[in-house]
Amino acid sequence: MGLVKTVKFKDARYLGDPRNVVKIFNEKEVDELILLDITATPEKKPIQFDLIHEIVSEAFMPVAYGGGIRNLEDARKMLALGVEKIVINSYSVENPSLITQAAHSFGSSSVVVGIDVKKSLLGKYEVMINGGRTKTGLDPVKHAIHMAQMGAGEIVINSIDRDGTMTGYDLDLTKLITSAVTVPVIACGGAGTVEHLGEAIRLGGASAVAAGSMFVFQGKHRAVLITFPEMSIRIKVFES
User: What is the DSSP string of 173-235?
Assistant: First the structure.
């Protein structure tokens, strides 16, 4: 597994060995890492438990993991490795009862639902699964409400259209979700500046913000340079 960053869920760019990158983020005193295997579900690959264990062992901060978690046993094995939270995306749509089962078994604070959203040409938001490859016809607000009712302790709302663009979060989408649910919402997709992070909190109502490209690319040529700003708002580094 190599660490990559996408733009609009495409054109994945290799960043390096995830174990080495985690060591750098340790030094930067990152608050939390969200590690997602973006090929596990779409390509039906088995979860790389041994590698996840190595990454978690290197991390000084809490780690959340998502990608290919299909059942309660996958979730149990992942948490036993030291992962603090599991992130369930596609299977929250295909098998919503998994969220309730996991919340009852491990506590809702350990269960995060990831919602990938794309806007149509007519401006309608739709939930996408399988790494953004498959349309669901689901409205993200209704899905978020359903997931909170099923037991999700947090929701990560990720704008596919803003992913990797560094042009700012989709604040309209973020606000729609945060206004509809009482569980914490993590805004993701589009962060490029510290100001963007603050906007997601102040204007979007997010409880936390996740970012990837902002922390690994520098300059107009997007040179890879791991960095992390000093600030007081709650940030989660989001990597694939």
Answer: HHHHHHTT-SS-EEEES---SHHHHHHHHHTT--SEEEESHHHHEETTTTEE-------SS-E
> Alpha-carbon distance 189 to 209, whole Å?
9
Domains defined along the chain, listed by start: 3-237 (3.20.20.70)
Q: Is 170 labeled as catalytic in the residue annotation?
A: no
The predicted model scores a pTM of 0.87
Tens digits of residue pLDDT in 81-95: 999 999 999 999 999
Distance CA 91, CA 128 (A): 12
Q: Which of 116, 161, 170, 172 is catalytic?
A: 116
Residue-wise pLDDT tens digits, 9-47: 887 777 778 788 888 888 877 888 898 888 888 888 899
CA–CA dist 110, 84 (Å, integer): 6
Q: Please, which residues bridge with residue 33 across strands?
A: 63, 237
